[in-house]
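Example (one chain per record):
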Amino acid sequence: MTALGWFMHRAYAKAGHFRKVLANYDVSFADYVHPYLLDELNTFPWWGTDSLCLIDEIAAFAPGRRSLARSNVDLATFLQQIRKRRMEFFFTTQFPQVLDQQLLMQIDLFIQVEGRPRGCGVSGHRYCMNLITHDWWGQ
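Predicted structure:
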């Protein structure tokens, strides 16, 4: 997620679009880092507009077993409205099957990461990764 965030950050800049990077974990290129970033964004602050948000371990914030909890309901409502604020989210989780259903409805793509510790066969590539993209809703 960090590498994709860096790639998108550079691509936005190259295209002349200013987009802040926000994260809930330490990222050197982020404009704003806070462990409770999602709680802050749920209040719709002005500084959240035009941003790319990197959220590590989303299952801690939106577990399916607490689907009616205020935090889950607020997050689902917030994610339904982010397109109006020109926000994009990248989430990581080890267990997507435990995510809240309302959150899953807002996710477009899942990227499954597989490490290749012996490289991919290209000269000089000692460690490579496969990024397998799943279109969750089949579009």
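Caption: The radius of gyration is 16 Å.
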